[in-house]
Amino acid sequence: MTALTRARLIELDAGFKQEKPGGVRVEVQFNPETLKLTFANEIKQPDGGDQKAGNNGRQFVGAGTTKLALQLWFDVTAMEKNAVDDVRRLTTKVIHFMTPQDSDEDPTKKVPPGVRFQWGTFLFDGMVESLEESLEFFSPDGKPLRASISLTLSQQKILEAQFKGTGRVPVRPGHAPPGHAPLKAAMQGDSLQSLAGRLNKGDWQSIAAANGIEDPLRMAPGQLVNLQASVGGASASANGSFGAAAGGMSSAGRGGVSVSGGLNASLGGASGTLSIG
Question: In the chain, which segments carry CATH 3.10.350.10?
Answer without folding.
Answer: 179-263
